[in-house]
Amino acid sequence: MEWSDFLDSVTICDEINVGGRSYADVMNIYREGERFPSLEDVNIALVGIGESRAALNNKNCAKAPDEVRKYFYRLFPNNDDVKIVDMGNIKLGFELADTYVAATAVISELLNRNIVPIIIGGSHDLAYANYLAYETLQQVINIVDVDPVFDIGNSEDDEDHRSYLTKIILHQPNYLFNLTNIGYQSYLLDQQKLKLFNNLFFDAYRLGVLTADIEEVEPIVRNVDMLSVDISAVRQSDAPANENALPNGFYGEQLCRIARYAGMSDRLTSFGIYEINPDFDVRGQTAHLAAQIIWYFIDGYYNRKDDFPSDDVNYLKYTVYSKNVSGDLVFYKSKKSDRWWMEIPCSEQLRERYLHQHMAPCSYKDYLTACQNDIPERLYRIYEKLM
Predict the structure, then answer these.
(1) pLDDT tens-place string over residues 34-80
(2) Residue 49 host element (H or E)
(3) Residues 292, 381: one domain?
(4) Of the residues 148, 170, 233, 313, which has the fewest C-beta atoms closer than 10 A?
């Protein structure tokens, strides 16, 4: 494809002069007046999408991509061999749907090249365009949505960032296996939407549950293909640049930790951060935090372990008798990373169809729960979907 047909160059490069080996110096950047950079041997690509026509009360989040770049370019990589390109910004279409088509085409091509896109929005509905890119792969995927609410509307025809999940759920052909919300706040949530999530066997984790033990986020994001972040999931004191900012939410350092867990996931292939509105920022605080979130994601990516139970040499196998399921529960612990998986009891046919889903990431706590002759909630939810 001709990348310049879909992307505008970055125009802020000359404003950044840090020196040393900051990202401004080590990245290939699609600069104004220059040819599009080569994608040969590239691992990660930054893609800005300054689209906000579907934003509710937060229209100027369209300004976010270049504002985040100002701070990201000044950061220093934690790896001497980063292979990252900044592809610039998606050209906006005459209609919102046209922008979706352009974003989907770019992201789809990156996925086919095994390049992980980091998407800087723009409004959160752009995650729908990200999802559509997986159609070309014909791959059943898992999505994690970091958001204080469920972005589910009343109709597939709703055109705003608070309804894009409806489009994903109803889209045909459908390649969505599981959808997980992390960080929802109960007092903001219509209980009917929570019931809908449960009826669809989707997963949702309250803010308080996760902030009490942030390490429990790691197995949640380890088996995800696509992760999107609404910056309003971070408390207003840490991220004021959003007209819908809230007094409660994750702390900035907690979201950085979640981003690093996501980067370390061997399966994850796209990451997006949305809804940053520079008009409401305080001395660039939110844009700077977003840059650090991206830094942690990249750091996690370059610390991937290529870790998935496939042999008995690199993993310890634990078998736990359970009277609550047919057959024993089998757990695996990696000798390389100390991470845990549990094998979901299912037929051989389902194992072949859902290769990654039947071997579910879990935590040591889940293993201890099984040892108490109780079914871990994580296992129960996936078991229901497979059956």
Answers:
(1) 899 999 999 999 999 999 998 888 889 999 999 999 999 999 998 88
(2) strand 44-49
(3) no
(4) 313
Query: Minimal CA–CA distance to 244: which of 255, 256, 231, 254?
Result: 231
The overall pTM is greater than 0.85: yes
Query: DSSP labels for 246-266?
Result: -SSSB-HHHHHHHHHHHHH-S
Site of tokens 């080996």? 21
Residues 260 and 218 sit within 8 Å (Cβ to Cβ): no
CB neighbour class for 334 (10 Å; exposed up to 12, middle 13-18, buried from 19): middle
Report how far residue 352's alpha carbon sits from residue 332's, in angstroms, rounded to the nearest whole number.
Answer: 19
Domains held by the chain: number: 2
CATH number, residue 89: 3.40.800.10
Residue that is written with structure tokens 């000359």 in the block: 14
**Spatial distance between the Cα atoms of 95 and 98, rounded to a whole number of angstroms:** 5
C-alpha span between 377 and 89 (Å, rounded): 41
Sign of the alpha-carbon torsion through 213, 214, 218, 219: positive
> Which of 268, 301, 334 is at the close of a domain?
301
CA 104 to chain centre: 16
Q: Is the dihedral of CA 6, 82, 117, 108 positive or negative?
A: positive
